[in-house]
């Protein structure tokens, strides 16, 4: 069965394309290449043994989406990754985020309206802000977003719930990701940050390979065991598999409407623990300093993944060592094979 994967050449999208094929699905990739490289398509072909169907198009362009929906009218599902996702940039350019993240979603929903599709939405734990209770469950209060990026995720979930309540033929699941890290075991695909990485793990691997002089740990005076922030890091392949599990859940006759799932490991790791895990796994001593806290960071968040285990029939399997080893192997691969 055909599944449309928007943002399918991105970090999580490309890994999900691989897992869809592994599960017997036929992915159709849509990507505007604003935050990815078309060379990832060749990398996917090396992993899969064939090049998936690819449309270079911007989902904010109505005519393009209308054409896509006409040409790809026989899809059974959509996994929607395509969105702007840099927290810091969203504070500087809120209109870019509201335009891109809402207009792309609304166009997809409009031009596929009326079709009985299984729709997976890429949401984020950022909707929780700093939870009052940890681990955070899906029923926790969704707090005032810390950034326009987080706000687009919260409002998009509301849009999807309203679409469901209107009697739409869509089945919809929103997956609230925690922190995706690592890379495919072949090292042929991974995270390709443009410019200076905003996220921790690509900054670590770029420092380790010498592309960055040193890592700054954004604060070590938090109310945590070692003073640095805690997050729930999840291997991108486990995250990709969760999307296949969501499609399979919605294919079941007893699934109706809308549901939301935490996609994490259920375990928190501090920034300093991640650094130590990286050094222990790779044998590379990391050059880092302690700096000031970063504006907008929550102190600690990790997910309660009971509902995902029970309803989604999915659990993360890869540990921090595997996450660090695969991230490092990927950094070394792209250093030798620039994409
Ligand atoms: C993790 C920890 C930093 C860089 C964001 C989004 C989330 C998702 C993942 C899109 C924090 C610390 C980081 C550095 C550091 N994005 N850090 N030095 O902010 O938890 O989550 O990215 O889907 O929605 O909110 O991830 O990797 O930026 O930071 O000390 O150079 O690492 O302070 O504690 P974050 P992150």
UniProtKB/TrEMBL annotation:
It comes from the Bacteria. Its cofactor is NAD(+). Belongs to the NAD(P)-dependent epimerase/dehydratase family. The gene is galE. This is UDP-glucose 4-epimerase. One of its GO terms (biological process) is galactose metabolic process. GO terms for cellular component: cytosol. It comes from Mucilaginibacter conchicola. Gene3D superfamilies: NAD(P)-binding Rossmann-like Domain, UDP-galactose 4-epimerase, domain 1.
């Amino acid at each position: 069965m055909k599944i449309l994967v928007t943002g399918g050449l991105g970090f999580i999208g490309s890994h999900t394309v691989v897992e869809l094929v592994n599960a017997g699905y036929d992915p159709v990739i849509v990507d505007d290449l604003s935050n990815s490289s078309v060379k990832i398509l060749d990398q996917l072909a090396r992993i899969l043994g064939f090049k998936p169907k690819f449309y270079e198009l911007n989902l904010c362009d109505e005519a393009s989406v209308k054409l896509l929906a006409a040409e790809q009218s026989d899809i059974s599902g959509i996994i929607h990754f395509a969105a702007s996702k840099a927290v810091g940039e969203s504070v500087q350019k809120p209109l870019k985020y509201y335009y891109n993240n809402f207009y792309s979603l609304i166009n997809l929903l409009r031009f596929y309206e009326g079709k009985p599709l299984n729709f997976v939405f890429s949401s984020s734990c950022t909707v929780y802000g700093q939870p009052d209770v940890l681990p955070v469950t899906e029923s926790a209060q969704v707090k005032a977003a810390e950034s326009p990026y987080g706000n687009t995720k919260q409002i998009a979930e509301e849009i999807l719930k309203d679409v469901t309540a209107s009697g739409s033929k869509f089945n919809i699941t929103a997956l609230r990701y925690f922190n995706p890290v690592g890379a495919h075991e072949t090292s042929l695909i991974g995270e390709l940050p443009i410019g200076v990485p905003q996220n921790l793990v690509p900054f670590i691997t770029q420092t380790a390979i010498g592309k960055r002089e040193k890592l700054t740990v954004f604060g070590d005076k938090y109310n945590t065991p070692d003073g640095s922030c805690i997050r729930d890091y999840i291997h991108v392949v486990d995250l990709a598999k969760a999307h296949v599990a969501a499609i399979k859940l919605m294919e079941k006759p007893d699934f109706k409407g809308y549901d939301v799932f935490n996609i994490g490991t259920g375990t928190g790791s501090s920034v300093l623990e991640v650094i130590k895990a990286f050094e222990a796994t790779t044998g590379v001593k990391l050059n880092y300093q302690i700096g000031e806290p970063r504006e907008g960071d929550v102190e600690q968040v990790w997910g309660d993944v009971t509902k995902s285990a029970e309803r989604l029939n999915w659990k993360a399997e890869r540990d921090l060592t595997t996450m660090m080893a695969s991230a490092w192997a990927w950094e070394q691969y792209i250093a030798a094979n620039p994409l």
